[in-house]
Amino acid sequence: MIELTNVTKKFGNKTAVNNFSLHIEKGSLTMFIGPSGCGKTTTLRMINRLTPYDKGNIVIDGTSVNDIDPVELRRNIGYVIQEIGLFPHLTVFENVAIVPRLLKWEQKKIEQRVREILELVTLDQSFAQKYPLQLSGGEKQRVGLARALAAEPEILLMDEPFGAIDPINRLKLQDSFLEIQEEIKKTIVFVTHDINEAIKLGDKIAIINEGNLIQYDNVSKILSDPANEFVENLLGQDRNIKALSLEKAKDYVLKDGFIT
């Protein structure tokens, strides 16, 4: 679905992303994590060409992103950021409908899609006529997600979308997001600085440091077999407990009265 091959990006003399290669499967949720300034957001932004890369190539469904008109590319890729970026003078309906209108959808189709997407992100239809100032932080984030999904993109890029939300509502948003992804099965690239969030949400995790991809694998493999000391430190001393949290009761079989 998304293929990054030997991608490099420099800002002046500083290499932000160094010879970065990664394959992201269709319908998967891939988490980018690493310390501040490691290149995770730069890598995300190169996928939709908000940041141009200097070397290498990024291919989506067999086509280099450099061969796609950047405006057209961004209209077909959902994008959610921590600041949300809702237009304060527009209602929720108008915010969600922005990309469908740019794509010249018929009004009836737009209205139907806004209703569907508000239901998907568990917002009552009455929210359609509210303005951003009338919303809580969690509600704004749901509207931001709704707007990113409104035009039914196959790819969704998310840059620390829950980072500014308080811990309790953040957990609720994570749970809701997993339920939504289970239904829509989009190809999602999600930047986070929170290892617990990465473990909870991700199908795979890409661990990045100083512009280099340190380890890329499914969550259980990273927890059981960290590539080096940097990854071990990122995972924390309780990584075995984190690994246990991935287990589900249905994976265990009761035999002769004992769990096996």
UniProtKB/TrEMBL annotation:
What are the alphabetically sorted keywords of the record?
A: ATP-binding, Nucleotide-binding, Transport
Instruction: Name one matching Pfam family.
Output: ABC_tran
PROSITE patterns assigned: ABC_TRANSPORTER_1, ABC_TRANSPORTER_2
**GO MF annotations for this entry?**
ATP binding; ATP hydrolysis activity
- ABC transporter domain residues are 2-235
Q: What family is this protein classified in?
A: Belongs to the ABC transporter superfamily.
Descriptive protein name: ABC transporter domain-containing protein
Taxonomy of the source species: unclassified sequences, metagenomes, ecological metagenomes
